[in-house]
Amino acid sequence: MNILVAGGAGFIGSHTAERLTTAGHTPIIYDNLSTGHRWAAGSQIIIEADLADKRSLRAAIERHHVEAVIHFAGCAYVGESIEQPRKYFQNNVLNTLNLLDIMLDMDVKILVYSSTCATYGVPRHLPIPETQPQLPLSPYGESKLFVEKVLYWYGKAYGLRWVALRYFNAAGASGQLGESHSPETHLIPLAIEASLTGVPFTIFGGDYPTEDGTAVRDYIHVEDLAAAHLLALKYLLENGQNRAFNLGTGKGHSVRQVVEMIECVAQKPVPYNVAGRRPGDPPVLVADARVAQQVLGWVPVASSLHEIIQSAWAWHVKSRKTIASAV
Predict the structure, then answer these.
(1) Of the listed 88, 140, 219, 235, which one is catalytic?
(2) Is the pTM of this model over 0.90?
(3) Is 140 an active-site residue?
(4) What does CATH list as the number for 187-217+250-287+301-326?
């Protein structure tokens, strides 16, 4: 199949595009490169354009005979969304509506959507099932939840076939692909950088109601996430019902535990400071992903904390050497 991968030059999108190619599909990467990287697209077809540009979207779908869409494109920083909600509703909601309009106009009715556990807010039960009430604490989570609601009604009204994948914390790296954001806000790359440079990074919140006072998250290897997208696509092609799935391991690790694992893998200390909590960050987010396992047949195989950290560490060290040799 020819599959439009919106945001396919980003962290999870690039890994998924690579998997699509291995599986015999043709990914067409559509990315404005505001946070993605041309190098992450490798030899894949890449169209540098924005989802706000309906003309480019229509031309891409028509020229490449697109049959399905996997949608990663969007802003994804909780803290930034609280400071700049307009940016998040413009990019994550309005631009997604543009994409859906063009898809429906051109009779492309299969969509795998990148959603988030941030739609849940503070969980009432742990681990979190898909039936948990969704009460986001940030415009980021709200924007993703809004799109999930749109997908529900577009499925009812227009026959759109969709799956929403609610990620917990994507991490790790694979081969030539890894996590590289600017600015970087994610724990693992920040802590690895601190270990490599000796410059402390900041842990936000040391007084959460958790065992060691730091926030607990469910970390999932990006390769396992990429595999889930192919299974979701297969599920839709086999006439699976429209629905959302959690993607996580069911096991949480605190910020301090992650730092300790990096110190173990790197064999060097990770310097850090502790600051106040960030708005919009719940104390604990851990997935109940049994439905994805039962319905999609998805089982994470590379998501032990050690494997995640080891792969991320190897990629960051390799990337620094590549940059240094190019200077």
Answers:
(1) 140
(2) yes
(3) yes
(4) 3.90.25.10
